[in-house]
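Section handout, structural biology tutorial.
Before the tutorial, make sure you can parse a SMILES string by hand: atoms, branches in parentheses, ring closures as digits. In the record below the ligand is pyridoxal-5'-phosphate, and the chain has 340 residues. In the tutorial you will relate the predicted structure tokens back to the input. Do not try to memorize them.
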Amino acid sequence: MDKEIDWKNLSFGYMPTDYNVRCYFRDGKWGDIEVSQSEEVNLHIAATCLHYGQEIFEGLKAFRGKDGKVRVFRLEENAKRICESAKGILMQPLPVEKFKEMVLKVVSLNERFVPPYGSGASLYIRPLELGISAQVGVKPASEYLFLILVTPVGPYFKTGFKPTNICIMRRYDRVAPNGTGLWKVGGNYAASLTAGEHAHELGYSAVLYLDPKEKKYLDECGPANFIAIKNGVYITPASQSILPSITNKSLMQLAEDMGIKVECRHITVDELEQIDEAAAVGTAAVASPVGEIDDLDTGKKYIVSKDGQPGPIVTRLYETLRGIQLGEIEDTHGWCTVVE
Ligand SMILES: *Cc1c(COP(=O)(O)O)cnc(C)c1O
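Predicted structure of the complex:
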């Protein structure tokens, strides 16, 4: 190993690893999995991904467990979701089995970059698919590149598991009512940069978007799903413009296992008055507790955490999910795949 990696002080950035894996769709079929040591891709100047945003991605993690084994969390769910994203913007879906094989291969090849147990760090896995054939007319590409890179990332909560504040700003939408919000499309992120940066400038960690049609119901929380606890019930928005988070799906299952009622339904802004806990959920943080929600249009402030601490249910859900990922708690739902 070149230099010792300071696992505890890694950021959520990019660090080069040894290998990435690639697979091309050409002449109507997917080819063999290729292993690459290059950090670059060679693209045609007229590739559809460059001109018309034909690009989708995924994000998942591998963890070093208490027993030293490396576990990938909910591999199959990510495989299925990127197929849905592909179909959504007319790209070629990668077969689920091929996705799994590629992920396990790239993790195993870069095993030395999976951070040690106890560091709080993990190996972030980033699959992406690009339309690569040359075309100037607006239509789907005939050739695709599916690539998976990995990079170690540090603990999300460097200063501890603490609530942050988020805001509502009705002037911004992340996606359109019947648009691409339910798929993991790179363009959705480009469309949300202005709003996100504006929120950061004002000292908020994210924008809590409202539904883009009526601006009445809660939608996504930046690049994460929003969840809240109200009278002991787990509530999360039902919407056509939300990316179905695998973390949210997992937390809903854990909540049910704990005997907590789960409701996936419309949540109005006014209902924020009555919530006891809230969090933004996704692979990066699992659950990032929310302290306060400021509606910048009405001036109303919804104080979620009165004592500046995360609530008990969000904390318990967070700890349970982390425990399963690290092999500390029995994986009764079969969510983890051990890398051999
Ligand atoms: C990836 C993503 C999430 C979180 O999904 P997970 O599967 O939990 O990582 C939530 N919202 C958006 C917009 C996303 O892109």
